[in-house]
Amino acid sequence: MDIQALIRNVVVKVGVASVCLLVLPSCSNNWLNEEEGDCSVYYRLKFRYDRNLKWADAFANEVSSVHLYAFDTSGILTWQREEQIDPSTAENYSISLDLPAGDYRLLAWCGLRNDGGHEESFSVPEARVGETRMEQLQCALNRQHDESGAYSKERLYRLFHGTLDVSLPSNDDGGSYDYTMYLTKNTNHIRIILHHLSGEDVDVNQFTFRIEDENGLMAHDNELLEDENITYRPWKMQNGEAGLGKADSRAIIHVKGAIADLTVGRMMETHREKMFLTITNREGGIVARIPVIDHALLAKDYYEEEYNRTMTDQEFLDREDDYVMTFFLDENNKWISSYILIQSWRVVLSNVDVE
C-alpha cells in the first residue's frame, strides 16, 4: 500500500468515528466531559401545608415526620419510606422517589413519629410491598378505654394527610423532576373558657369538660370511617385571669375564668350531629351542651370577608385548627345560651336549645 492510500484510509476511519460520536446519545459522551453529569433520572417529592387560614406554607414549622407510600395502578403497594424531619433543614425538605418510570398514586401520613415526649397519637397498619392495598392504609387514633368507653386525654401530636397521582417519565438523557404534595391537617386544638357575666371568679375545679365524636379512624382518602364514640378530655385545666369592664363605670376588674384545653381529631361537616361539647358541674348537672361543628363555623364568614375568599364549610374546618370558645355563666352557673365568643368575636345566638 502506498503512502497516499494509507493516508486516505486513516482519514476515512477517523471520519466514520467522528460521525458515530456525533450521533451517540448525549449521555454516551460523558466520558469526554464529566462535567455534563450522568444519565440518571431523579424524582423528588416536596410537601406543602398551606391549607390554613393564612394561605401560607407552614410545613417546616408544623410537620415532624413523613410516612410515604407509592401504589401502582392496581392499588398495590410498590414502595414505602419513613423519614424524621430535621428542623434545621425542614424549610427545603424533599424526599427522593426511588421508583422506576411509571404511574403511581402517592399517599402520605405525616406526624406519626415525633419527639418521644409522650406516646404517639396515631398509628397505621404495617405495610408490605407487593401485598398491602391502598385501602388498608387507614390511620387510627390511639385511644384508651375505661368503664365509660373510649377516650383520649392527650395533647395529640399534629397529624397530616396527603395524596398525589404522579406519572414519572423515562428519560434516556437523564434529568430531575420535582413534584409537590399538598397536605391537610387533621388535628385541632380547642380552648374552652368560662366566665361569670357578673364578674365573679370561676373555679375550673368546679367543672368537667368533654367533647365526643366518632372521628378516630381515617380512610386512605382522609374520609372518616365508622368508629366507636370517643370522649376527648382536657389535657390541661387552669384558672386564668382577665380584665373585664363594668357597665356602670370605667373601672376594670380582674376576674378568674376557667380554662380547659383539648385536642380532637378531624372535624367534619358531616358530623354536625355527632360532635358535642358538654360542660358539667361537680354535681353532674349540665352547664352547657353544644354542637361543636355548628359553633366552629360561626367564624367562617369573618375569614371569607377578611381574605376575600369563599370557602365551603369543610374547607374552613380543614383550614382552621385552633378554636377558642368563651361561655358566660349566670348566677346559677348555667350558660347564658344567647351569648358566646368564638375566637375573639362576640356572637349573639337566637333560637338556641340547651340540652
UniProtKB/TrEMBL annotation:
UniProt GO cellular component terms: cell outer membrane
Pfam families, A to Z: Mfa2 (PF08842)
Compartment annotation: Cell outer membrane
Primary location class: membrane
Keyword set, alphabetical order: Cell outer membrane, Lipoprotein, Membrane, Palmitate, Signal
Family listed: Belongs to the bacteroidetes fimbrillin superfamily. FimB/Mfa2 family.
Protein name: FimB/Mfa2 family fimbrial subunit
Taxonomic lineage: Bacteria, Pseudomonadati, Bacteroidota, Bacteroidia, Bacteroidales
